[in-house]
């Protein structure tokens, strides 16, 4: 079973001035992250504004990333949508491009039963040969996977991991201990060091788009038992993440990238652009924490 390790930016979807996906910016962003030592990319997640894109655009973004990466790192595609049928179509497309795994938020809007979620992930796993990664993100999906639910998903050996975007570190620790062979990704950047201490070996995050080097360093320091130094870096990252949450995480990530010289445009409406004062505030926090 493949085990993913390392830092995986949850890529933003870069737009040009007309609001269309920018292939140039995709290339620049991917290259910049690779230079910083990331192990792979998570494409089509919330940070990528996927639910504001058409299905065609979601496919195109993944195609552009695959081309830019050119086999130099793993690519995980989030194909989460509203229905199993659509999800399978996107999963097959992702598989045809050569992704390392597909991932999916549980189908949302309609409150399905856990039975139905288990069925959903098994149907997905049956439809493709690439492995499947489940996504625990209660704040966005409205669904909390309990540890016993996770056990049901994981009993399918094609379901090889989970992105845990939850503040429940107790559950994370229990899952890590119970499933040492599964790939468990920390999905909250601000918890990355704490999650690493209890055994997490991989992270997927929005802020990795522009400060991946901090998390690559934290991982290295943890393997050397240099916790205090790692905590200093996590502290810097958290000051930045705090600022991001104040201005809006996805808009803030795009603003930070722009300040670093990688223009990925604005987030799509209904997101409204940051005000000048917010950009200035973010810039100061980024400077103070060695991101600019
Ligand atoms: O992909 C991101 N989660 C969401 C992971 O977008 C919901 C995280 O990176 C968070 O944006 C970040 C801030 O809470 O940890």
Kindly list the characteristics that best describe this protein:
single chain, 292 residues, alpha/beta, eight-stranded parallel β-sheet, globular, binds 2-(acetylamino)-2-deoxy-D-mannose
Sequence-ordered SSE layout with sheet pairings:
Blueprint: E1 6-9, H1 23-35, E2 40-43, H2 55-69, E3 74-78, H3 84-97, E4 101-104, H4 114-127, E5 132-136, H5 138-141, H6 147-154, E6 159-164, H7 169-178, E7 183-186, H8 192-197, E8 202-205, H9 208-223, H10 227-247, H11 249-259, H12 276-288
Parallel strand pairs: 1-8, 2-3, 3-4, 4-5, 5-6, 6-7, 7-8
Bound molecules: 2-(acetylamino)-2-deoxy-D-mannose.
Please tell me about this protein's structure:
With 292 residues, the protein is of the alpha/beta class. It is 50% helix and 12% strand. The protein has twelve helices and eight strands. It has helices spanning 23-35, 55-69, 84-97, 114-127, 138-141, 147-154, 169-178, 192-197, 208-223, 227-247, 249-259, 276-288, and strands spanning 6-9, 40-43, 74-78, 101-104, 132-136, 159-164, 183-186, 202-205. It has an eight-stranded parallel beta sheet. Helix 11 packs across helix 12. The chain is globular, with a radius of gyration of 18 Å. The N and C termini lie far apart (39 Å). The model has no long low-confidence stretch (mean pLDDT 97). The site of 2-(acetylamino)-2-deoxy-D-mannose (MN9) has 17 residues, from strand 8. 2-(acetylamino)-2-deoxy-D-mannose (MN9) is lined by residues 10, 45-47, 137, 140, 165, 187-190, 204-207, 241, 249.
